[in-house]
Design a protein that fits this description.
By secondary structure, the protein is of the alpha+beta class. Helix content is 54%, strand content 12%. It folds into 2 domains: 143 residues, no CATH class; 52 residues.
Length: 241
């Protein structure tokens, strides 16, 4: 009797969720392929890039109605299962963003549903992996930080940042190794001068926090393109490898 009551409550929850979100229901089959493609990339990497797998709990949130579509049930079993996915509603006390968050005693990845392009799998997977990296970054040894770098909006800060980028660009396009080293040294000198000019910044820490996620996303995105050539049926259908 208790089991029947629990199943009935979950059915009512799922019905209320779908009714509360209007006539236009999310394409759960399509969203399911998003999760499976991300799982495939994580399985293919298998921890080679960072020493740990980025596979884990992900919730996609519709900003218009706060609908959660998750790839798994949460620890508190708050979600209603539908078509192999898990639906819920994000409380108004939690901001909707592309980020990581603590949910039911576990670290989750949150991504805004409208930020995932349907027709651009490279960009879609890049964003999912980027935010999944943020979920795991503490285990990698790169703590999350808030940027204290408003000087980069200052005219001097902008000029010095662009000069650093120019030196790095010259290092990339130059050929002899000594010339590359010279441009790299120039970039480091400019960066050090800028940081001394604006004390209290945390450029280096924030570069690690956001820069490593930016590096990881395209790395997995490139992996998707390679797999798409090697085994298109599995990737396009969202099958795990």
């Amino acid at each position: 009797m208790q089991i029947k009551t629990s199943v009935f409550c979950l059915c009512i929850l799922a019905l209320n969720i779908m009714i509360g979100y209007g006539q236009e229901s999310p394409d759960l089959k399509l969203i399911g392929t998003y999760f499976k493609q991300a799982d495939s990339l994580c399985a293919c990497d298998n921890g080679k890039l960072w020493g740990i797998t980025l596979n884990g709990p992900i919730m996609l949130v519709n900003p218009e109605n706060r609908l959660i579509i998750a790839n798994r049930q949460d620890n508190a079993k708050q979600f209603a299962e539908k078509s192999g996915l898990f639906l819920g509603k994000l409380p108004v006390s939690i901001n909707i963003a592309n980020t990581s968050l603590d949910w039911s005693g576990e670290k989750w990845t949150m991504v805004m549903l409208n930020a995932l392009p349907q027709d651009d799998p490279y960009s879609r997977n890049k964003l999912l992996i980027h935010e999944s990296w943020h979920r795991m970054q503490d285990q990698i040894g790169i703590p999350a930080v808030t940027s204290f770098n408003t000087h980069l909006d200052d005219l001097k800060g902008i000029i010095l940042l662009k000069l650093e980028f120019l030196a790095l660009k010259n290092a990339l396009i130059s050929n002899p190794v000594p010339e590359k080293k010279k441009h790299l040294e120039n970039a480091l000198i400019i960066k050090k001068y800028r940081q001394l000019l604006f004390p209290g910044n945390n450029e280096n820490a924030f570069e690690r926090h956001e820069g490593m996620a930016e590096y990881t996303g395209p790395s997995y995105g490139f992996l998707f393109e390679q797999l798409n050539l090697a085994c298109p049926d599995k990737i396009r259908q969202g099958k795990t490898l």
